[in-house]
Amino acid sequence: MCGISAYIGYREAYPIVVNGLKRLEYRGYDSAGLVIYDGKKMQLSKTKGKVSDLELITDKEEGRKKGNIGMGHTRWATHGVPNDINSHPHFSQSGDLVIVHNGIIENYDTIRKELITRGYVFESDTDTEVLINLIEEVKLNEGCKLGKAVQLALTSVVGAYAIAVFDKTKPDELVVARLGSPIAIGVGKEKKEFFIASDASPFVEYTKNAIYLEDEEMAIIKIGKKVKVRKIHDDSIVDPIIQKLQMSLEQIEKGGYDHFMLKEIHEQPKAITDTFRGRMLAKENMIKMSSIEDNLDKFLNADRIIIVACGTSWHAGLVAEYLIEDMARIPVEVEYASEFRYRNPIITDKDIVIAISQSGETADTLAAIKLAKSKGAFVYGVCNVVGSSIARETHTGAYTHAGPEIGVASTKAFTTQITVLTLIALKLGQANKSLSDEVFENYIQKMELIPKQVEKLLEIDEHVKSIAAVYKDATNCLYLGRGFNFPVALEGALKLKEISYIHAEGYPAAEMKHGPIALIDENMPIFVIATNKGHYEKVVSNIQEIKARSGKIIAVVTEGDTQVRDIADHVIEIPDTEDALTPLLTTIPFQLLSYHIAVMLNKNVDQPRNLAKSVTVE
Length: 618
Ligand code: AGP
Known about the structure:
- By secondary structure, the protein is of the alpha/beta class.
- It folds into 3 domains: 3-248, Aminohydrolase, N-terminal nucleophile (Ntn) domain (Glutamine Phosphoribosylpyrophosphate, subunit 1, domain 1, 4-Layer Sandwich); 254-459, Rossmann fold; 460-607, Rossmann fold.
- 36% of the residues lie in helices and 23% in strands.
- The chain has an 8-stranded antiparallel β-sheet, with helices on one face. The protein has a 7-stranded antiparallel β-sheet with strand order 5-6-7-8-12-13-14.
- Strand 9 (184-187) and strand 10 form a beta hairpin.
- Helix 4 crosses helix 5 (146-155), helix 7 (268-276) packs parallel to helix 14 and helix 16 crosses helix 20 (583-600).
């Protein structure tokens, strides 16, 4: 959580830092701040609220925008409520050092008490102000340069961090470091300028050359010099690898849509096609996935597969459980990463762990991977963000290739995760002969149609919008599905909750009778997935039970369905496909529905309250 955007070079730092913060706002948006150094003064502006609120302040303080060095921060509060004082950047007591920080210093209270005994006075409630004063204390005590002081200070902190630190007495350098939270360094032409950010999006239009720090690494960035990287704890020198960015500016802009979420919903046909690329060879009736092929023995001889993930990615994992067990007959368990990591699970070297994450930075998922590895399990990652911590921590894996997902509510990340997981299930099912050639080939041919079917499905937007208008004032909603579509019901409910703040629950349709049915009255909208295969008659019975209690039914059905149409209040049709592939389609109407309800309720669709895109704290 929290976004860092900093610049050192020859351009005006202010617009680079502010635009960078806007692109990183998905990481947290309860307060924002920046400091610009003009060679004489550290010009600080910070406020509770969004980057746009910060801009309003700096607009009134025009003079504060000049200078070629700047550091900015957009915050998701951990220590201290979101207010002006707790916003970053934070200064050291002397006023010489300034820091922006993403992460949590867990032993900050002990350090703070110690520093207070040495005469330090703190303005804010943050762990970050403690850290910058610790760095200052070390610098004064040791009589060392900033880089050494940062390194020594970090050896005595416990927790997670990505930091950028500036010392006005050494104004040609910035020091950055990471442990558990990401940091990228954009290297400008002839090293005349450098960009520092939580991901590469703030500097993609300036340079395609990026260095991603690894955990426990720090870098000294000096104008005109090669970036010096070293390990924080053992002081060893690291030769930094400069990676070429694949990201383009268009990918991270709204491209004419009102919101990133809507753009990302509409990008799904392309995103799924990109996920297929090089893997789905429909003409040859083949799936090519080297990460599976190279480890086929491990997969086929595994006792079980354990899937770990959080939120929407966990829902994708649940779909995968149904897929892998059905298609490949390998036992699968799906775990919330946050529970798995702390419940002393039984894991052996005969287990395969699949970790699913859009961002590749979710702290609980990362910790679950480390735990599984420590017990000897082989860990496979399904990630969207290339080069992310989870992608690097897993033994191997597959990228989803969804492209940058900026809206906090996951949409294309979910469908592309399911796409990859379906390919894996099919590949394993073919390899261990749980699927006959005929069934496998039928799946391939049906799978190939999915991007076009999603494209067609997106044409229902106006119809879904009209349904959203009817139910936008509901205070409670139920989402029901069975089999492959039970996780889609959970995901539908999560989407509605997170962006419209309407209470919603997802249930397996048959579970309704064991409790939730008590909630049903004439005010309760119930969204039911009733596609024509898998348990169709059972779901129809569930719908009848709801109607008997005056609930309102909005049913997602297969095109041409007449039976449910006769009973439901509204129907939304999806194109016909195999039951196992329906989650790739049934998800779409629920994404659109949540989007339209949130817009009608005037909610902040892309940045819902209290949330952040990547949860890098546990
Ligand atoms: C989904 O809309 C949410 N933003 C959230 O549940 C998310 O899926 C979860 O935090 C996991 O994130 P990850 O996929 O980046 O690990």
